[in-house]
Amino acid sequence: MPRVVIAHITDTHIPGAGEATHADAAPTHNLHRALQHASRRSAGILITGDCAAKAGTDTEYTAFAEVLQSASVPVWLAPGNHDDPAKMQRLFNVPSRESRCDYVVELPGTRLVVLDSTRAGREDGALDVSQLKWLDAQLGTTPAIVAMHHPCIALGGKAFETIRLDDASIVGLREVIATALQGGARIHAMVSGHAHMTCFAEFAGVKVIVAPSSAYEFGLVDGVFCYQLGEPQYMEYSWGSDGSDFLARVVTVDDSLWRTMY
Ligand SMILES: [Fe+2]
Q1: CA of 173 to the centre of ligand 1 (A)
Q2: Within a domain: residue 129?
Q3: The domain that contains 28 carries what CATH number?
Q4: 257 CA to centre of ligand 1 in angstroms
């Protein structure tokens, strides 16, 4: 059975021309490489937010639009806390519902459900009652991938307190997912970004995948919040065209690292 492959890139943090991010970081070069790499092996590319480096400015989005040209397959965007969702709808034709970037992409054997978990001026995320109701209506026997910027799981520690949806949203989401599963809905995974760390967990009986940032990784070193540079990474999701055998793997964007086995 032919398999469907999509890439999940996140937290690209593209600065405007002449603007700096963290020292030594090369987010634009990283994203350019990741998009080219993913385009060779994927039917489409999901980017779950923090497309812009800091505040979703025009100069950041001009630079982001430029690097997006490195993709030769469809790109599906969700906003992050450093983005401006209204601007993304206008500049990148991100579909919306009730002014939020909530939409569905129908893929062979799988439905990609994208939610806008951002709230203006807040670092953490939220989903309102209308969004939860809409999500409920999208879940059914066709397997779904539910994507948003903020993870629905706690990542532990005070430094990571805001790196998730707020408590009320988590309670509501848990109820929607649990009820949908009881009703026979299938969900491959709930996927997000925001943490700049690759994490795997479980939420209400569903796999949770937090994808690596293409720009830089976060972590605590002796209790100090740090970032780490390295080869850009992204998640690759694949499944049979009937929705069977979902697989997730981490991809490192550097084909020069490979050595022929035989
Ligand atoms: Fe980020």
Answers
A1: 22
A2: yes
A3: 3.60.21.10
A4: 26
State the Cα–Cα distance between residues 200 and 211, nearest whole angstrom. Answer: 9
Kindly provide the residue ranges of all beta strands, DSSP E only, lying in 60-183, ordered along the sequence.
75-78, 103-107, 110-114, 144-147
Type and span of the H or E element at 64? helix 58-68
CA distance 227 to 212: 12
Ligand 1 centroid to 55 CA: how many Å?
11
CA of 259 to the centre of ligand 1 (A): 32
Q: How far is the CA of 3 from the centre of ligand 1 (A)?
A: 30
Q: Which of 259, 239, 256, 165 is nearest to 1 (CA)?
A: 239
**Domain limits for position 29:** 3-253
In a domain, residue 260? The reply is no
Instruction: Give a yes or no: residue 259 inside a domain.
Output: no
Predicted confidence (pLDDT) at residue 141 exceeds the cutoff of 90: yes
**Residue 160 pLDDT exceeds 80:** no
In the chain, how many domains are there? 1
pTM of the model: 0.96
